[in-house]
């Protein structure tokens, strides 16, 4: 009888990658939650700030494209190991400078390196899920959400006690960088064992790897997943950028209460991702994606129709529970769709993370200003609902195609 339990190497690789997701969630939250402090430190005008903020996801997309080429020569684990400290140091640099050019340089480095980091982390996650033979991607993104909550909490404490940015960032970076480097010793991305005992992971490290990894990633097949990724991040950026303003200006909540929805959104995302893998194993990815889509759309509808602040918070809570499953499952689906070229597929798909982030906030803001914010909330609702049209793209290949060709299978190891 074949032993289908994950090996120690796989378990260590899974834990070490979760550490990296956690660290990145904390670092990113420490940046985005202190944007007003950065603006004050460098004297960035309100007119110039959007250009600075838009440059980060644009450069992140460039970093993701570059990573697709880099991992043809260097293992994703090595890329992640050495790029994660760069992201953390760029955060410290952003909080330590005094001149505007220093902020621009720090954010440019942050953007380029975070694109490489996001791509390589998810490449490793897809590799490990393939080796495990069951859904584990949501767990990695749960670690990211937990890191985001920790980072946002530390940022709140720094703002509450008026701690200078460099004083807040320096000890955290000094702690997080060694932790991430230490954990990176156990990344499992080369010669990763297949739990079925069939040798190395298809597409990397085996005798057939050269032919498999050279398989083209057809954008026509990948496009549905790219659109879902964009829709999910349009919804995410709507909550992160507009939930506080919506509660305060439209639903007439207090300033203190207006800060609650995003925190609740992050917590519910953590809960949904923590238990989401169990749902995928039991009901399948398609059912989980459809349920998440309907829940998120229902949440936006509740927000748009909310008579008061508490109903609005309920809506944002539903959005968090629904959206949290879409992004991890989209990466996982890309890995299944292109099993011989999953790294390239993940790198290209990752670009649409930043496309959604760039489009979402300005789109809702423009519609809110020209029309009204209640109506604007219906736009991310409609876009998220469009995911239902593409839900079949999340099915295992054997369930999608009836052409008689052999397709990759996964084995539930329990």
Automatic annotation (TrEMBL):
Location(s), subcellular: Cell membrane
Keywords for the protein's UniProt record, in alphabetical order: Membrane, Transmembrane, Transmembrane helix
Main localization (coarse): membrane
Source species, domain of life: Bacteria
Pfam families according to UniProt: MFS_1
Annotated transmembrane regions: 15-35, 47-66, 78-97, 103-124, 136-156, 168-188, 283-304, 310-334, 346-367, 373-391
Cited InterPro entries: MFS, MFS_dom, MFS_trans_sf, MFS_Transporter
Name of the protein in question: MFS transporter
Organism: Streptomyces cuspidosporus
């Amino acid at each position: 009888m074949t032993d289908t339990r994950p090996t120690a190497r796989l378990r260590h690789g899974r834990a070490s990658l979760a550490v990296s997701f956690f660290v990145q969630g904390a670092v990113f939250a420490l940046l985005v939650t202190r944007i007003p402090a950065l603006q004050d430190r460098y004297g960035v005008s309100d007119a110039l700030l959007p250009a600075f903020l838009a440059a980060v996801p644009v450069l992140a997309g460039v970093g993701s494209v570059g990573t697709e080429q880099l991992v043809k020569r260097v293992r994703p684990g090595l890329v992640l190991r050495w790029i994660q400290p760069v992201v953390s140091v760029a955060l410290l640099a952003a909080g330590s400078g005094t001149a505007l050019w220093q902020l621009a340089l720090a954010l440019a480095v942050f953007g380029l390196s975070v694109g490489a980091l996001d791509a390589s982390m998810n490449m490793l996650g897809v590799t490990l899920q393939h080796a495990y033979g069951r859904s584990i991607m949501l767990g990695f993104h749960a670690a990211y959400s937990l890191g985001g909550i920790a980072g946002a909490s530390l940022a709140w404490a720094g703002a509450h006690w008026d701690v200078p940015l460099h004083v807040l960032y320096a000890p955290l970076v000094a702690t997080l960088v060694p932790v991430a480097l230490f954990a990176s010793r156990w990344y499992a991305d080369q010669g990763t064992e297949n739990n079925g005992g069939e040798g190395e992971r298809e597409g990397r490290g085996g005798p057939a790897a050269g032919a498999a990894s050279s398989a083209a990633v057809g954008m026509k097949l990948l496009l549905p997943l790219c659109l879902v990724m964009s829709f999910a991040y349009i919804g995410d950026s709507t909550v992160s950028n507009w939930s506080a303003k919506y509660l305060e200006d439209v639903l007439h909540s207090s300033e203190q209460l207006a800060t609650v929805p995003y925190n609740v959104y992050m917590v519910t995302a953590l809960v949904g991702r923590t238990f989401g893998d169990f749902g995928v194993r039991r009901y399948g990815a398609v059912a989980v994606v459809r349920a998440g889509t309907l829940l998120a759309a229902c949440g936006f509808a509740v927000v748009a129709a909310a008579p008061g602040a508490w109903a609005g918070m309920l809506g944002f809570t539903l959005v968090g529970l629904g959206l949290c499953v879409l992004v991890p499952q989209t990466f996982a689906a890309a890995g299944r769709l292109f099993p011989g070229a999953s790294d390239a597929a993940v790198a290209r798909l990752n670009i649409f993370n930043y496309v959604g982030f760039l489009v979402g906030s300005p789109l809702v803001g423009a519609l809110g200003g020209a029309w009204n914010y209640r109506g604007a909330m219906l736009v991310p609702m409609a876009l998220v609902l469009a995911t239902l049209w593409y839900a079949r793209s999340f099915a295992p290949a054997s369930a999608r195609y009836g052409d008689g060709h052999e397709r990759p299978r996964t084995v539930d190891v329990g």
